[in-house]
Design goal:
alpha/beta, 164 residues, seven-stranded mixed beta sheet
Amino acid sequence: MPILDPYAIEFFSRSPSQTKRIGIRLGGLLQRGDLICLSGDLGSGKTTLVQGIAQGWGSGDAVTSPTFVLVNMYRKVNGPSLYHLDAYRLQSAAEAIDLDLDAMLENGVLVVEWPENIQKALPRPRLWVKLSWIDLEQRHFVFKPEGKRFEKMMKELRKHIYGG
């Protein structure tokens, strides 16, 4: 495994509730225009993490995987929306562009599952999160910021996770 850059965070979750809690912490740091890319195999914890992100963002909406509808929107009272895109079934960046990603980022936060399928359509800066399945309860996360905004966000997330 490559050595992480100084802004990246490596985290081991021991349970779905811990995965959700780190999502809550991350969701509380998000601002309109932020792009979060969740890369990982089926069962790696992406939807569980998004459940926490939406809760931390301030949405009371139930979070489900948007695999068949492509995009779910979670509302925040008197605030911007959180868009949850599942790019698993998309075949190209052009298909993603047709979904008007720019409008989603202008109107809120965009969280993308399977971002590698549409990587050419995804702007920077962004936060790339690599999720890995370890065993029935455990997951491994690497949070890698791309851009100053997300480097600062990772400093804040590190404080929330590890204190200090």
